[in-house]
Design goal:
It is a single chain. This protein has about 325 residues and is α/β, with parallel strands linked by helices. Helix content is about 35%, strand content about 15%. The protein has a single domain (about 5-325), classed as Spore Coat Polysaccharide Biosynthesis Protein SpsA, Chain A, CATH 3.90.550. It is globular and about 55 Å long.
Length: about 325
């Protein structure tokens, strides 16, 4: 670790997790789910049994992290050493206002993160499908006191979360004019490190007066705690409405709203994400994904679940074997 890394402000990691096979959780889930719709699908809570490799990757590739805030509905992996000095177990009730509980809405869980007691001013939000696959220094996530990110214009693609992205953009466009943002921060929105392809995509959309979309990398996301606090001051009523939905709703907002606002304010340091991979698990992709994991093709990756998986158990074991090759042996977080 270099001298700059030794003197950087503390950085925490935050990871929400749910065990979709827990009978008590499933009973609570079923009781709260009045109407079956896509956004309450149980596929969102399927456990690939790769969590232990997330902890191994953090210990091996980011040993400098100050603390890990592990958010849980109340259940815990049997193998997790809850007494680990770097581990903070956070139940939903520990930080989410009681008016929003019980919740099975990932937006509620993430939008309230700044309320976690003891959370560092700088933190990285992970999902349990995002992994570090190569060594990282603190500067991979924060430089010059700001989160490292890539600001790139895009057009929103139809998807299961497309409506949430539009909801975020509606508030962003009411707060920021694209032309003004690009004029104030040209070297952050058109940084050479993004690569030619990304720059051309932004240039194509730059003439628009409003934001048609902002690229979402789906990677471990660095945040400043104050950015969440500011969002609740600006959009408290709208965020409150989202958090009162026990499941994802068509009218929801997400933590991407806070990221978009941060980018528009220029409160970030440009970085390249060209060595990160967003991969979708499936029958035709599992072999190449496992190869990418074993060979460390990407420094960070996100593994998207997919409904059309013919044999989940077999694929889960195959994925775990690939991670075992990359990260053999228990971490200090495992009993």
């Amino acid at each position: 670790m270099n001298n700059a890394s030794q003197h950087i402000a503390p950085i925490d990691f935050v990871i929400p997790w749910v065990d979709g096979s827990d009978p008590e959780w499933r009973a609570a889930f079923t009781a709260a789910r009045h109407d079956v719709h896509e956004d309450s699908s149980e596929i969102r809570y399927r456990d690939w049994r790769t969590l232990r490799y997330w902890f191994r990757s953090v210990e091996r590739f980011a040993p400098w992290v100050r603390r890990i805030h592990f958010i849980t509905w109340g259940h815990l992996p049997a193998w997790l050493d809850t007494s680990h000095p770097k581990l903070h177990i956070v139940d939903h009730a520990d930080y989410i206002p009681s008016a929003y509980l019980p919740t099975f809405n990932s937006n509620t869980i993430e939008l309230n993160i700044a309320r976690i007691e003891g959370l560092a001013d700088r933190f990285v939000l992970f999902n349990d499908d995002t992994f570090l696959c190569r060594p990282h220094t603190p500067e991979a996530f924060f430089r010059h006191g700001l989160p490292c990110d890539m600001a790139r214009l895009s057009v929103v693609q139809p998807s299961s979360v497309g409506h949430i992205v539009y909801n975020n953009l509606e508030l962003i466009n009411a707060q920021h004019r694209q032309r003004d943002v690009l004029r104030r921060h040209p070297f952050k929105w058109f940084a050479p490190c993004y690569g030619l392809s990304n720059l051309l995509k932004s240039l194509t959309l730059a003439p628009w007066s409003f934001f048609p979309g902002i690229f979402d990398p789906h990677m471990p996301q660095p945040f400043l705690r104050r950015s969440f606090e500011r969002a609740w001051q600006l959009w408290g009523l709208q965020l409150d409405a989202t958090c009162r939905h026990p499941f994802r709703d068509l009218t929801d907002l997400s933590e991407w709203l806070i990221r978009y606002d941060t980018l528009c304010r220029g409160e970030f340091t440009p970085t390249s994400l060209g060595d990160c991979g967003l991969l979708t698990l499936g029958d035709e992709t599992i072999d190449s994904i496992c190869h990418d994991i074993r060979t460390q093709r990407y420094r960070m990756l996100c593994l998207n679940d997919h409904e059309s998986i013919s044999d989940f158990e077999t694929m889960s074991r195959q994925l775990c074997r690939a991670f075992e090759t990359l990260l053999p042996g228990k971490s200090s977080f495992e009993l």
